[in-house]
Every structure is written in C-alpha cells, then in structure tokens.
Amino acid sequence: MSGALGYFLRRFLIRLILKQRPIGLVLSRHVTFRGCDRVNLGDFLRIDEGCSVDCFPLAKGIEIDDETMLERNVVLSTGPLPGAQLKLGKRVSVGVGTVMVAHGSIEIGNAVMIGPLCYIIAGTHVHDRVDIPMLDQGHRGHGIRIEDDVWIGAGVVILDKVRIHKGAIIGAGAVVTRDVPPMAIVAGVPARVKRERSIS
After folding, report:
1. Which helix (H) or strand (E) holds 61?
2. Three-state SS for 122?
3. Chain centroid, CA 126 distance in Å
4. In this structure, are residues 168 and 196 in contact, taking their beta carbons and an 8 Å threshold?
5. I need a labelling partner for 129 at 20 to 30 A (CA). Which of 21, 68, 97, 120 fits?
6. Which residues, at least 6 apart from 24, have a Cβ–Cβ distance to it below 8 Å?
C-alpha cells in the first residue's frame, strides 16, 4: 500500500513481527524480512523499496544500528552456516543494489559510506573434492571487518578474510582481496594502495 496510510500501517505491523520496537523507522513498500526473531533494528532507520533482510535459521543474527540507511534493492543475508552474523553500525549508508552475504561474519563500523552495486561476501563455496559437484559441497566463511569512517565506491567487490581499517577509501570498481591500511586510498583489480590521505 502506497501513501501515508501504507507508511503508518507498515510502521505498526513491523512492531508486531520484530522483537523490539524501533523509533522513527521509515519503511518503504516491498521490503522483505525473514528470520525476524534474529533481526534487531535500531532507531531512525530508512529502509527503501525492494530491500531484503534475510536471516537463516542457524545464523546468529542481523543487527542494524541507529540512523542507518538502506537504499533501494539492498540485500542483507547471513547465509546458512551456524553462527553467521551481519552487523551495521550507526549512520551507515548502503547504496542501491548492494548485496552483503555473511557465511561467517560481516561487521561494519560507524559513519561508513557504501556506494551502489557493491558485493560484500564473507564466505565461499567449498570446492575441495572433484568427485561431487561444487554445488553439493556447501560453504565456508571467515569474516569481513570494515572500520569507522570508510568510503566504498560504486561497484566494489570485497572478499572474505579482509579488514578495511579506519578512514580508508576504496575506489569504484575495485576488488578487495587483502587488508587495507588506515587512511589508505586503494583502487584496481586486485585493489592496491595508490596513496594515503593526509591533512592538507
């Protein structure tokens, strides 16, 4: 339902299906929640049309802290592994069409900007055996940590076992396969340090 009536109805109903009652939630149409008993929402969030927040049964949970914004068609998923979790800090901005999948854990700090069409995945398909299809071998996951005040450009891919330190900038289209130092500006495939931010 669109318009003001739909907005107030969604705010009322979301309080019935989640275990807490967020204040100031702006929830657009066609937003999907699964595994609601393990989803925790902070206050003053904005979740735009077409977003999906999907917590698998064995996962630890998904947490979205205060004043965070998910733009249209963002997907947050824990994946099916036991203990998988995904945490977004305060004032995180996630751009249109970005996908995050945590087979292990994804932890994002405060005041992080994530551009559109990014792919952040803490995990991979198991492919150790050659006698059975990879599809049947499951997943494994470690973790991704993105610290405070990081800017991630459009179309960035961040792979498992990566830590992006405070104040870093990731250039558009980069593929991040290794840790990024504090205040570094990285770009390329694979991403490499181009220069460091400094006080001018």
Report:
1. strand 61-64
2. strand
3. 22
4. no
5. 120
6. 43, 44, 45
- The catalytic site residues sit at 125
- How does pLDDT run across 152-189, given as a tens digit for each residue? 999 999 999 999 999 999 999 999 999 999 999 999 99
3-class DSSP assignment, residue 6:
helix
The pTM (predicted TM-score) of the whole model is 0.88
Buried b (16+ CB within 10 A) or exposed e, 63-72: bbbbbbbbbe
CB 193 within 8 A of CB 179: no
Domain spanning 3-158, CATH class: mainly beta
CA 93 to each of CA 70, 98, 150: distance values in angstroms, whole numbers, following the listed order: 6, 11, 11
Rounded CA gap, 170 and 152, in Å?
5
